[in-house]
Design goal:
This protein is mostly helical. It contains eleven helices and no strands. Helices cover 72% and strands 0% of the residues. The longest helix has 37 residues. Its cofactor is Fe(2+); Fe cation. GO terms for molecular function: metal ion binding; stearoyl-[ACP] desaturase activity. One of its GO terms (biological process) is fatty acid biosynthetic process.
Length: 305
Amino acid sequence: MEDVNLLRELEPVVAENMDRHLKVVRDWHPHDYVPWSEGRDFAFLGGEDWEPGDTRIGPTARASLIVNLLTEDNLPAYHHNLLTALGSGGAWGEWIYRWTAEEARHAITLRDYLVVTRAVDPVDLERRRMALMASGPAREPVELLPNVVYTALQELATRLSHRNTGAATGCPIGEQLLARIAADENLHMLFYRNLVGAALELAPDQTVRAITDVVKGFEMPGAGQPGFRRMAVEIANGGIYDLRLHCDRVIMPILRHWRVFERTDLGPEGEVAREELSAFMHVLDAQASRFVARREERAALAAVR
């Protein structure tokens, strides 16, 4: 089924899930989650600029907060990719603009929280934001099926990352804020997960092919930001988001929900894609196990020293 036909066939599913989303989503206000009483002027207005001793949050949680905020900051690029993949008309357009409005709150609130509490260096943060947003388009796919598959997985991954980052801050306000953002991401994940489920019924071979390609090439949406690899390693070593979590809490649950390995309606192309996916998941599982084993070995050595 061509993308244009599938786009049309899926539009009633979009409308149905948009209605479901609007019934369950909870409105919230960014200003409620920022401890404004902790704020003070920086040197430009006669106060004091940030210094490392200002923060009460550990380095791993700080790295994750920066990665998560810059990921949310790149919303214009994601919005552009969604419009390119899905179009701006009808139910598709209504959803994209609603999704964008909800996502915008995440960056607003996270930045206010981080700057007011002096959790991170605001100058470094702004330089990173400028570098990321000036670097060009996001790396998300712009074809219909790969885009909705990627977004379903990415929303689930982001939900997990936000929740674990909040717990790692050791700050009750920060944890509450990131749990609130994670709740939004969960509802967004359900929307895209349901779309992929409907696509599997309409075009099973094409959709399984898209699932396989996206899972094999998956990168978090913030991968293009400055210093991402180094911070991703620190975040993984801290247990906030690592390959084991990616495999067990993101990829496998959603594949089970879509019943990818149980379907009986695949043609030759779909079967080939599914076998490829199965082989990849075995490799990913082994890599995740090795990562955890090495991390535990390093922790044991550090304890002895």
